[in-house]
Protein 1
Amino acid sequence: MTLLDIEDLAVTFPVEDGPDVPAVDGVDLQVEAGEIHGLVGESGSGKSVTARSIMRLLDGAEVTADRFAYRGEDLYAKSEAEMRAVRGDDIGMVFQDSLSALNPVMTVGEQIAEVVRHHGDVDESAGLLSELRRKYVTGTRKTASSWRRAVDLLETVGIPDPEEVATSYPHQLSGGQRQRVMIASALGGDPSLIVADEPTTALDVTVEASILDELRRLCDEFDVAILLITHDLGVVAETCDRVTVMYSGSVMEHGRTDQLFENPAHPYTKGLLRSIPEQAPPDGELTTIPGSAPEPTERPTGCPFRDRCPAAFDACADPLPEHVVDDGHVARCHLYTEGDDPGEVAWDARDGETNGTVDGATDRTTPTEVTDG
Ligand SMILES: Nc1ncnc2c1ncn2[C@@H]1O[C@H](COP(=O)(O)OP(=O)(O)OP(=O)(O)O)[C@@H](O)[C@H]1O
Ligand code: NI
């Protein structure tokens, strides 16, 4: 079942003395129930803006979409009160910066217990006065169901000694433990989807690996879907069932993780794959894509990647087409519009030089020169 179904999302930030910023422009995103879906792309590609659009947390931005459905219901047709119920109960969120996302003056057990009470799983008042009394006077009784559930959730996300940790304040915990607390808190509302924006980026690799394992396990065990935002394709390879690749506000390619890694179709995806150790060609150094992504206000027409693409040709100035590579695997790239496979993209040029040729593309207009970034 498709949980989240977004078609042609555009998000623009009005700017007072300057051009509006078209941060996201043309994003399709489908998240299936129970899957881990990777949203990947370089910095500034619009991953976080897309994530926040799902929670409707984009104050002042203009958001349009052909479709923006969660479980078949239009999220943008909901009232703010209905949306508050969606946040936390249906869709949980985990951010990169756990220290600023958690309340510094409440124990983590108290914070999770509050989420549990609001979700209504336990027969304890979550009214404002009751919460204020707990916060400033009594605290949650350690025998209360909401507290027991908070401790259970801490245990579920792999925190040793959860009783002890529940009575700690966020600053007393390590970054990895705080990230687990955020995941426990997101689970407190028993959501069907967790949006996790770079949840492990600030952590060292061993802690990152164990938290990703944990997410994988939670996804399988609780049947919760996770939209995992990352700029790290290695993380995607390890963790995700499917993946959507973004570049400069648009989706370039999406498909199952195995389809995308074994048979990448978009030159941008191919370029990204060359920059991760597991995927680099046997002969070679890791190569990053020369140049950098354009600012949203300076994006070229048509394919936003064409200035950096070694295979770009005249048609790339036209609006992005959709090429179905395989069942469930789509690339938005002009190279395929004539129905033939363009073969290898010349990403193997070294020293920042691209020779700009594509095998099998002899009948095309000569690709444009790519400048060294
Ligand atoms: N409130 C805002 N006002 C104006 N522009 C914004 C705003 N928020 C984001 N942007 C712009 O939107 C674009 C996309 O930003 P976003 O944070 O979604 O990128 P990202 O893919 O999450 O990058 P990163 O990997 O660095 O987190 C960027 O160019 C950014 O400058
Ligand atoms: Ni981001």
Protein 2
Amino acid sequence: MKKIVIATKNKGKIAEFKQFFSKNNVEVVSLLDLEDAPDIEETGKTFEENAALKAEEISRRFNIAVLSDDSGLIIDALDGRPGIFSARYAGEPTDDKANIRKVLGELSEVPEAERTARFICVLAIAVPDKETVFYQGYCKGTIGHTEIGENGFGYDPIFIPDGYTQTMAELPPEEKNKISHRKNAISQLEKGLYSK
Ligand SMILES: O=c1nc[nH]c2c1ncn2[C@H]1C[C@H](O)[C@@H](COP(=O)(O)OP(=O)(O)OP(=O)(O)O)O1
Ligand SMILES: [Mg+2]
């Protein structure tokens, strides 16, 4: 079976990548499976820089091709925050529930029409001695008033995708994986790889 190494420790992302790649019969290997995988500091100023840091560090260290995912939530009423700080918005160590509380608190006075947001996913592919390439995907929606739903991860319980009345965390995983920023980035990646 073919393998793909993904430079992430996020179990939610790993589950989604497993679902995406299962249709190609590709086994997903993550940093949780590698011994001595480092914690990579995300010191970049953009999603691209952080995605590159993660993919290139693991690619160099193990001399293999690596995919990484840097993603986050961009809220219009918060001037794009939490953005690249999505994972550590309420401080470190990362706490999804605390991040959600902080966002809902900051939006408490913001009316319905101004609660627009989007998820972004930037994928980087690093190959030893090659230039890193990037693919991007978005998913637009609005931010709800309370957390609802048990599926997914991160900000899913407060994100209502456009065209839906439920939060992303209420959708079955197969449904999220048809419309998500991650799915849209994977589609760009497939287009990019197969058109060359
Ligand atoms: O589909 C999603 N549904 C809900 N929330 C999401 C999603 N996708 C990203 N997010 C949030 C979670 C985290 O707060 C941040 C990603 O931060 P990000 O640094 O890319 O990932 P991470 O630190 O969790 O794992 P890692 O860096 O090991 O890949 O955006
Ligand atoms: Mg991270």
